[in-house]
Design brief:
This protein is an alpha+beta fold. Helices cover 15% and strands 43% of the residues. The protein has a single domain, classed as HesB-like domain (Hypothetical Protein Aq_1857, Chain: A), CATH 2.60.300.12. A hairpin with a 5-residue loop joins strand 2 and strand 3.
């Protein structure tokens, strides 16, 4: 599993208290105009089918087993532009993305 998190996104995750017992949970769920969308939350409880997809500098990201097939190569960034600030998920393996960038197809 190979995902990357930009330095700016790491800074924002630390502000959200990711680290120690808290980690970033990333899931792929059905939805959006292209078929699938990313869901991310801060969590502190691991389940049996969770897989660590990123661990570096005290930050950890996990995903359920079913989501991992869609996450290899994922790049997590952060933008603080005035119109649409927040985390950005970019996957070079996506074959289609919607115009607003919130959903994808593989």
């Amino acid at each position: 599993m190979n995902i990357s998190i930009s330095e700016r996104a790491k800074q924002e995750l630390v502000k959200l208290e990711v680290g120690g017992m808290n980690f970033l949970r990333v899931s792929v769920i059905q939805g959006g105009c292209s078929g699938m969308t990313y869901d991310a939350s801060i969590d502190s409880t691991l389940s049996e089918n969770d897989i660590t997809i990123y661990e570096e500098e005290g930050l950890r990201a996990v995903a359920d087993e079913g989501s991992t097939m869609f996450l290899d190569g994922l790049e997590i960034g952060y933008s603080d532009d005035l119109v649409t600030s927040g985390f950005r998920f970019k996957n070079p393996k996506a074959t289609k993305a919607c115009g607003c960038g919130s959903s994808f197809k593989m």
